[in-house]
Automatic annotation (TrEMBL):
<dbReference type="GO" id="GO:0000150">
    <property type="term" value="F:DNA strand exchange activity"/>
</dbReference>
<dbReference type="InterPro" id="IPR036162">
    <property type="entry name" value="Resolvase-like_N_sf"/>
</dbReference>
<dbReference type="InterPro" id="IPR006119">
    <property type="entry name" value="Resolv_N"/>
</dbReference>
<protein>
    <recommendedName>
        <fullName>Resolvase/invertase-type recombinase catalytic domain-containing protein</fullName>
    </recommendedName>
</protein>
<dbReference type="GO" id="GO:0003677">
    <property type="term" value="F:DNA binding"/>
</dbReference>
<feature type="domain" description="Resolvase/invertase-type recombinase catalytic">
    <location>
        <begin position="5"/>
        <end position="77"/>
    </location>
</feature>
<dbReference type="Pfam" id="PF00239">
    <property type="entry name" value="Resolvase"/>
</dbReference>
Length: 77
């Protein structure tokens, strides 16, 4: 059986440090552990330190561009 394929995306706002508890590294650790336990294949990891309030998150856009050109790839975030 083929593993389901995913991208990992971790983001921490540069504006709301007091509201967002988990660091990018902690988010990635949790996502990797989840993927391992669920036997999911991670194709690539994306991380970004940017507010989601305004459009223009570069890494998110890059990831979405790749997804549009691939079949059956999901996102863990």
């Amino acid at each position: 059986m083929n593993k389901q394929k995913y991208f990992l995306y971790a983001r921490k706002s540069t504006e709301d440090d007091d509201k967002q508890v988990m660091s990018i590294e902690a988010q990635l650790f949790e996502l990797r552990e989840f993927a391992r336990k669920e036997n999911l294949e991670i194709l690539e990891e994306f991380q970004e330190s940017k507010s989601a309030k305004k459009p223009g998150r570069e890494k998110f856009g890059e990831m979405m561009g790749k997804i549009e050109n691939m079949d059956g790839v999901g996102i863990l975030t």
